[in-house]
Structures are given as C-alpha cells and as structure tokens.
Amino acid sequence: AMDYAGLAEGAAEKMELYRRDPGGWRVCRHTSEVAVSWRPSAEFAGNLYRGEGTLPASPQDVWECIKPVAGGSRTKWDQNVKAFEVIEAVSDTVSVCRTTTPSAFMRIISPREFVDVVLMKQYEDGMMLSAATNVEHPLCPPQPNLVRGLNYPCGCFCVPSPGEPERTQLLSFFQTDLGGYLPQSVVDSFFPANIATFYSNLTKALKKLKA
Predict the structure, then answer these.
(1) Most exposed residue of 15, 56, 100, 181, measured as fewest CB within 10 angstroms of its CB?
(2) pLDDT range class, residue 22, cuts 50, 70, 90
(3) DSSP alpha helices (H): ranges in the chain?
(4) pTM of this prediction?
C-alpha cells in the first residue's frame, strides 16, 4: 500500500523548500492581485510556478475559501474545480482526494482528473499550509472519459500580515503535468493565466464572504 502520510509530509517539505529558495524565479505575469513567476521543475519535465499576492481578508477567511475539504467553497468560486471529493481520510490532517477540472483554454484542454494526497498544516505563527502530490488509489482507477493529470508537490501558504489582521499573503506553488497531447506553447500560456484567474476569483469570493 502507498504510504500516503509519508508522501503528504514529503510534499509539505518540498513546499517549505520552494518557499525558502529565492533563486532562479522569472516573473511571467503581473496583475494587481498577483505576481506569477516560474522556474524549471526538479520533479518532472515542466515548470514550477509560484503565485504571490496579498488578499484583503484574514488568514482564517482565506483558508475557509481554499481549504481542500469535501463540500468546501472551492467548487463554487474556483472555475478550475468542477468537483472535489475525499476518497479516503488517512488522518485528521491527511486525505486522498480526487479533483475533476472542466475543459479549459477555449476547449483545447479537455476535462482532467487528478488524484492527490493532501496535507493540511497549521504553524505556531498562524500560517497555514495545504500541500498535495499525485498518488494512486484503488478506489480511483483512471476514467475513460477523462485525461489523468499529475500534480507534483504543490500547494498554498496562507501567511498572516503582522499588524494587519485583515490582510493575508497567499503564496502558492503549482507544478502540474496535464497529461494528454498538448503543445508546449499551450501549456506555457495556460498556467500563468490560470494562476492570475485563481487569485482574481479568490479575491472576489473573499469580498462576497465579507459583504
């Protein structure tokens, strides 16, 4: 059997390394909400992307919107998440989850499914992390009508802003092999645009939450 907890911890450790390692990042997109940068991934033959932005809400509110739980609000505001289900709760902080995504990029990218082990972690300074990486699970064989994509260690840090309880730095890392046969140019333009949209939609969701 797969060591789901160990794999989840490993993904969290990689997140910590990415967060602390400032070298080699190149900015590829900048909006009022997020700076997106990339560098080649050490995990697979693609890129590791970093999104960095400050959101107008408390870390708890941001976490409420992004936390990877069944019945969470992610499917409502994140246009990239069509469905999210927990396949197995490994512990109170680790679960194996399946995410399906709708077609994207003017339908050039067909619907995908991802099976990941996800870890949620809270730090003493109030920072929160969700980290994930691809796994296989006996209850989740590949679906014939969906392309199985693979997430390599990825996730989000919700970082409190000292002295500003209603501001949160959201630092996110994405490295995904979309699978299938996509031209590299499509993949390279998809991710930065996608990350910018993620921050924009999350900002809107947070404003609604406070309204």
Answers:
(1) 181
(2) confident
(3) 4-20, 59-66, 74-77, 184-210
(4) 0.95
